[in-house]
Amino acid sequence: QGQLVESGGGTVQPGGSLRLSCAASESIADIYKMGWWRQAPGHQRDLVASIIFGGSPNYAPSVTGRFTISRDNEKNTVHLQMNSLKPEDTAVYYCQAVATIFGGRDYDYWGQGTQVTVSS
């Protein structure tokens, strides 16, 4: 069964930086998009950033200019560089991979989540 392995969460002071990474197992075929979502306590899960392979990245307005999503060359691995972190960035961050399955439908894979805490 395909899985996504996340790493890089932790605790940082306001203004600090963290880098999250997500690697998809080789058993997941036909991934065409990967992204990061986050969920704070009592809130819904929201999209932070995504990238369509061969296309441009997409960011939530709240992180534009501070976060950067990137992909390792030709690999199903993405990173989220988070700079100028704010307390409101505190959440569990989830990696998502979207693959095309039989019938041309999309299938979402999710990571287990990694905690990011921004606090002084």
Name its key features.
mainly beta; seven-stranded mixed beta sheet; four-stranded antiparallel beta sheet
Query: How many helical elements?
Result: 0
- One letter per element, helices H and strands E, the order comes to EEEEEEEEEEE
Radius of gyration of CA atoms, rounded to a whole number: 14 Å
Q: Major beta sheet, specifics?
A: 7 strands, mixed
Assign the structural class, choosing from mainly alpha, mainly beta, alpha/beta, alpha+beta, or little secondary structure.
mainly beta
State mean pLDDT (0 to 100 scale).
Answer: 94
What is the molecular shape? Answer: globular
Q: State the distance separating the first and last CA atoms.
A: 40 Å
Number of strands: 11
Residue stretches low in confidence (pLDDT < 50, at least 5 long) are: none
Strand content range: over 45%
Helix content: under 10%
Tell me what the structure shows.
With 120 residues, the protein is mainly beta. The chain is 0% helix and 53% strand. The chain is built from no helices and eleven strands. It has strands at 4-7, 10-12, 18-24, 31-39, 46-52, 57-59, 67-71, 77-82, 91-100, 106-110, 114-118. Strands 2, 4, 5, 6, 9, 10 and 11 form a seven-stranded mixed beta sheet that branches. Strand 4 (31-39) and strand 5 form a beta hairpin. It is globular and about 50 Å long. The model has no long low-confidence stretch (mean pLDDT 94).
